[in-house]
């Protein structure tokens, strides 16, 4: 269990994605402007979508950083 809030880099590691700053920014830039719920985005694998959905439903320690990513992806 985390003793502090997970970071965006840790979220990307958890999702099995490249967690470098450049890769995170490229991911956000590529998917920016998405609509709908983050866990329903078509670019996630089933496992990634289930992790995100579960973390949000349980208001797990991941929820805050997922919300941050969600805001970045919905931003125009």
TrEMBL record:
Pfam families documented for this protein = DUF2789
Give the originating organism. Alteromonas aestuariivivens
This protein is called DUF2789 domain-containing protein
Q: What InterPro entries does this protein map onto?
A: DUF2789, DUF2789_sf
């Amino acid at each position: 269990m985390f003793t502090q809030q997970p970071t965006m880099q840790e979220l990307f590691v958890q999702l099995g994605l490249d967690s470098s700053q450049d890769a995170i920014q490229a991911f956000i830039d590529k998917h920016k402007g998405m609509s709908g719920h983050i866990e329903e985005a078509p670019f996630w694998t089933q496992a990634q979508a289930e992790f995100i959905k579960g973390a949000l439903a349980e208001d797990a320690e991941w929820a805050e950083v997922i919300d941050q990513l969600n805001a970045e992806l919905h931003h125009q």
